[in-house]
Amino acid sequence: MTPTTPSDPTALPLEQKAALLSGQDFWSTPPVEAAGLPSVVLTDGPHGVRRQVGDLDQIGLIESVPATCFPPAVAVGSSWDPEVAERIGAAIGVEARAIGVPVVLGPGVNIKRSPLCGRNFEYYSEDPLLAGVLGAAHVRGQQGAGVGASVKHFAANNQETQRMQVSADVDERTLREIYLPAFERVVTEAQPATVMCAYNKVNGVYASQHHWLLTEVLREEWGFTGAVVSDWGAVDDRVAALEAGLDLQMPGDHGAGNALVVDAVRSGRLDEAVVDRSVRRVAALAGYVSKPTDGFDADAHHALARELATGCAVLLKNEAGALPLAAGQRVAVVGEFARTPRFQGGGSSHVNATRVDDALSALRAAHPDLTFAPGYALDGAGDATALREEAVGLARDAEVSVVFAGLAEADETEGVDCTHLDLPAAQVQLIRAVAAVSARTVVVLSSGSVVSLEGWHDDVDAVLAGFLLGQAGGSALADLLTGAADPSGRLAETIPLRLADTPSFLDFPGEQGHVRYGEGVMVGYRQFVTVDRPVRYPFGHGLSYTTFETSDLQVRAVGADAATVTLTVTNTGARAGRHVVQVYVATTAGPVRRPARELRAFTKVSLAAGESTTVAFELDRRAFAYWDVREHAWVVAPGEHTVQIGRSATDVVDERTIDLAGDVVVRELTLQSSVAEWFEHPVAGPQLLEGFLATMPEGAAEMHAGMLQMIGSMPMRRFAADFGGAIPAEELERLMAAARAAR
To answer: Which residue in 121, 133, 115 sits closest to 74, CA to CA?
Structure first.
């Protein structure tokens, strides 16, 4: 829907305009009757509506109106399916309107820089394309239902440690290629009602008052027209934030920030036009306010949550057909998580679920004679040895034992980063003990991020990573284990062999108020594949109960900087299933170090047994480009680019190489440019060399190459000063002008 406002709010007195730019309480903006503006309620998402119950003057993380807890982003990321994200967004929109919420805060599209980030369960992926496509789909669904979205947290918010003040120190190329593209895609393709700024600083400046981020990039480059809202309590300097482009401060601060804005305008330090600009943006949110509907169908939404969750779990391992469970098998279910499910993370996104399914009850419907033992206590209480021995006794008599393991909600929550990737020791001991006696062992994992599989992985026959699947996750897991649904998830983040192998290991979470993004663009799989470092399971990996093959790959260059890709996918197995086609691009062309391959397109296809389909992709210039820090632009390097089809980031099944003309970049020359840049310049270089050699003694040409090796990095200003007789100053000025003209 298109937001509209009844009258011009900029005609209000200054004090009322300032008041409109901050919350009247923790969760809503003040109504302004004179302008016909109702109060706008903004509440937490992203995977369900968390409408606080009671006093809105204080934060309430537990008491909230019942709502459907859909699969969180960690699961949606593993679906690789924008339809899943869009249907969740649409359902959240329906529930929000029923509950009386015009703006739901989500989705979160921050990159999973480290598997230790405590809030990874709210984010999609370590890859910006995957995160951006899913985030844009969520926004389309939610806003299509008439409820504003808030893509967050802008930007470089990739940890919880010192999140309120840490400076993310990251170079521009890394920002542009890794940490900004998901936001860019959501803004340009889905036009969210709001963008939420992050708590942290970016290169020493708080995101809430970062003019380059909030105005130059977000608005001037990407064309964002909505309101920028602060994360709750993220504003450090209210006036500086307003000038930088932050419109709405949340929560309210009892008028203190409003008074600062008024004083700044009255004293002439702040142009009232800046206030008016933000007033228009915040007032536009009133267009999302509507009368609450008659409610929503909780049963239908629960069924939807179950359906979508089955497409999110990832079958990591399945030896000798351990899964699906066969009818009539003697099954032992082990692990407290089977009857006390872990289905969401902790903190501001915690949803008061309308109901919760557990896997144990759902599995009993298909296997009424199964046996169960808790195996461990979630709080670590009780006799661990006795609990383990009881489980081992059941496993010894079973044909297959299904062990439910994972992390507790307290281990993965907003505000705290993890310190390791390990499962609790009691669970590892249980898995190994069960696997030692059971004919077959299946492990089902529930966690908000990847966990280590080391120490037990090779002892078991199958591993199903459920991550966090929402309130219907228990039934969804049972559907997958019994074969009622086919696993179709793929890893949206790498599972490493060791925490020390992860690219950010030495720099996460930083020290003394700074976190250095030292791995640059080599985030996640980009570094693992580039340095050929082994992993337990790569980005993009996932198995099915059927098999797929790709064939007839054709790649055709389109113009100087784009390509089309077509291929055929065939279900070669005996049952229907879904397959994710992953398209990567690899190149060594250009002046910067590129990852060995980068995800540039994907789609998920459904195929009956024996069915084939043709899939087509259009790869635009961004699929082949890098961010050039000297040109401050995206550049496609001339040369060979290889389009690869992968089952994962490490398993390439087919590829074709094309030659792209790319961009002919004529660099600007200044006296700070190096001697090598001058002599190698396509316009100035030949003229410079000719004039230089004409003034030098015989044999200078042979010395030229060696000279460049020694002094090539010297700025021309110094070279001209030290060897000034060789190149007149006016000649340098002429050549600089010629270089500028050639651009």
So the answer is: 121
E strands in 262-352? 314-318, 331-334
Decide if pLDDT at 420 tops 60.
Answer: yes
The full DSSP string for 177-190 is: IIISHHHHHHHHHH
Distance separating alpha carbons of residues 544 and 301, to the nearest angstrom? 26
The tokens 């309430």 sit on which residue? 60
- Rg of the chain in Å (alpha carbons): 29
Query: Exposed, middle or buried, 22 (CB in 10 Å: 0-12/13-18/19+)?
Result: buried
CA 449 distance to own-chain centroid: 13
From the list 158, 164, 175, the residue with the least C-alpha distance to 114 is: 158
> Which residue out of 127, 231, 417, 561 is catalytically annotated?
231
Note the pLDDT of residue 217.
98
**DSSP symbol at 232:** T
Please check whether residue 86 is in contact with residue 138, taking contact to mean a CB–CB distance below 8 angstroms. yes
* Angle subtended at Cα 197 by Cα 196 and Cα 202, rounded to the nearest 5 degrees: 155
Bridge partners for 227 per DSSP: 194
274-288, 386-400, 624-638, 687-701: which has the minimum mean pLDDT? 687-701
Q: Residues with Cβ < 8 Å from 452, sequence gap 6 or more?
A: 420, 421, 422, 423, 495, 496, 498, 499, 536
Question: For position 301, what pLDDT does the model report?
Answer: 98
- Residue 108's alpha-carbon distances to 101, 128, 170, 231, in angstroms, are 18, 12, 20, 12
461 is catalytic: no
Confidence tier at 709 by pLDDT (50, 70, 90): confident
Give this prediction's pTM: 0.95
pLDDT, residue 62, reads 60
Phi, psi of 548 (to 5 degrees): -135, 150
Token pair recorded at residue 580: 């994710």
Helices 82-99 and 298-309: angle between axes, nearest 10 degrees: 160
CA distance 288 to 485: 38
In 145-268, alpha helices (H) = 172-174, 181-190, 211, 238-244, 256-266
What average pLDDT does range 719-733 have in this prediction?
79
3-class DSSP assignment, residue 453: coil
